[in-house]
Design a protein that fits this description.
The protein is mainly alpha-helical and 443 residues long. The chain is built from 24 helices and two strands. The chain has helices spanning 2-9, 12-28, 32-35, 37-45, 47-50, 58-69, 76-85, 88-113, 127-135, 140-153, 157-170, 176-184, 188-208, 211-240, 245-256, 263-281, 287-293, 300-307, 309-329, 338-352, 356-387, 389-392, 395-408, 412-435, and strands at residues 116-117, 123-124. A hairpin with a 5-residue loop joins strand 1 (116-117) and strand 2. The longest helix is centred in the C-terminal third of the chain and has 32 residues, at 356-387. It is globular.
């Protein structure tokens, strides 16, 4: 029943809300994501955006948001989009990135305008505060809905499970594991997954117990490093297949508007690409409002300009790197499952680069862990809003414990459960952005 409800809500209704609502905001803003892109890059380089005192800066907030959104979806998700929609799906991912940038502009603006101050003097933001302060107390039920959904929706079910799945198929299994399996009565595969899950949980604990300052500090160097390494690997693939690159771009644009199979197929390709991008960059879901609301910046437009770069980096730049690699070297003669999507990417990198699959595995590890760092903060802020700062901080231990559980359990109902709450975050966020759109300034 839960899976059926999740499929219903996360299908057409969520797509219409995120893409349709984002497109409305893009047009109303006068194409702010294109028109203001030079201003965003200029603000990003300013010293004011990097200085934060005892709080996190706007740049650190952006790095933390990108750390959360740049994950499995940027590799496995792109492969799935190519399997389901062909090269043309990538063009619609680009369109969705432009739409998502406009949505995140509104998120960054409103979360800064309506941020709260915690008892210790640090700033706090999020969709729940935007609703409470911007729409009024009569809408508090919607704020509570977002916060409850945020506690469950930001649990890293897919990241923990798929990362464990990828590591178990890549890493050599310790010899002592078979003997230990016999003595405990547990399967060797289960024990190996449990061992990896515990290791992941320990790494996440070391970072997250330091709070938002440590998360932002780690993200500010981890994100550029992992995206930079990924760029170098893709650059090597492009350089060694340079004669095929023009054909790849021709196929992307040609297949994006391919009418050979009729208008229905064209719409299907567009929906596949746009939906994948929307699920990857989190635009309109509300997680970015939590991180950007915690920055030291008090200028709404400045924060909005920096916030809108997130989908450009994520669905624009990183997903394009993946698409180029896969279209040049990938093997798509397979199913469209998420694990298969990851294996397509690993196969492509292994084929094109010596030890490429292992280098990609390191990047996947960084992508997945960085997502966990930021998502732990999102869930903690939602819990603190509901239960107070004193009790909300205990959420982090629940989050860490679930990483071990999700590492060993089948996805099944758990994914449907998480997807349902993810959608329940998006509905309050997009409704709020649309209702408060007149409060946003574009110049």
């Amino acid at each position: 029943m839960i899976n059926s409800i999740a499929d219903l809500i996360c299908g057409v209704p969520l797509f219409i809300l995120l893409i349709g609502g984002g497109l409305f905001l893009l047009l109303r803003s006068g194409l702010v994501s294109l028109r203001s892109l030079p201003s965003s890059l200029r603000v990003l380089r300013e010293k004011q955006s990097r200085d934060s005192g005892s709080q996190i800066s706007s740049v650190q907030a952006l790095a933390s948001v990108v750390a959360a959104t740049v994950g499995m979806g940027n590799i496995a998700g792109v492969a799935i989009a190519l399997v389901m929609g062909g090269p043309g799906a990538i063009f619609w991912m680009w369109v969705s990135a432009i739409v998502g940038m406009a949505t995140k502009y509104h998120e960054g603006y409103l979360t800064t305008r309506y941020k709260a101050t915690l008892p210790d003097g640090t700033p706090a933001g999020g969709t729940m505060y935007i609703i409470e302060k911007g729409l009024g107390q009569q809408w508090r039920w919607l704020a509570i809905t977002f916060a409850v959904a945020g506690m469950f929706g930001t649990l890293c079910i897919m990241n923990a499970n798929q990362l464990t799945e990828a590591l178990t198929t890549t890493l050599p299994r310790p010899g002592w594991l078979e003997d230990f399996s016999v003595s405990t009565g547990l399967g060797a595969d289960t024990l190996f997954r449990l061992l990896i899950g515990i290791t992941i949980a320990l790494v996440v604990t070391l970072v997250t117990i330091g709070g938002i300052r440590r998360i932002a500090s780690v993200a500010s160097w981890l994100v550029p490093a992992m995206v930079g390494l990924y760029f170098l690997l893709v650059l090597y693939i492009i350089a060694t297949h340079i004669t095929e690159v023009p054909g790849v771009f021709r196929s992307i644009f040609a297949e994006a508007f391919n009418l050979r199979a009729g208008w229905g197929a064209l719409v299907g390709i567009a929906v596949i690409g746009a939906r994948r991008a929307a699920l990857v960059n989190d635009a309109g879901v509300g997680t970015a409002t939590i991180m950007h609301g915690a920055s030291s910046n008090t200028n709404p437009r400045r924060e909005a300009l920096i916030a809108m770069l997130g989908p450009g980096i994520d669905s624009g730049f990183v997903c394009t790197l993946t698409a180029l690699s896969l279209l040049l070297c990938g093997d798509f003669e397979a199913s469209d499952s998420s694990i298969r999507g990851l294996s397509i990417a690993m196969g492509a990198f292994g084929k094109a680069i010596p030890w490429g699959e292992y280098l990609l595995m390191v990047i996947v590890l960084c992508f997945a862990l960085s997502s966990m760092f930021s998502y732990s903060f999102y869930g903690t802020r939602c819990a603190s809003y509901l239960f107070g700062e004193k009790h909300g901080r205990h959420y982090i231990w629940v989050f860490i414990a679930t990483l071990v559980i999700f590492a060993v359990m089948p996805l099944g109902m758990a994914v449907g459960f998480c997807d349902l709450f993810y959608a329940l975050m998006a509905f309050p966020t997009m409704i709020t952005l649309l209702l408060l759109r007149k409060q946003v300034r574009y110049s």
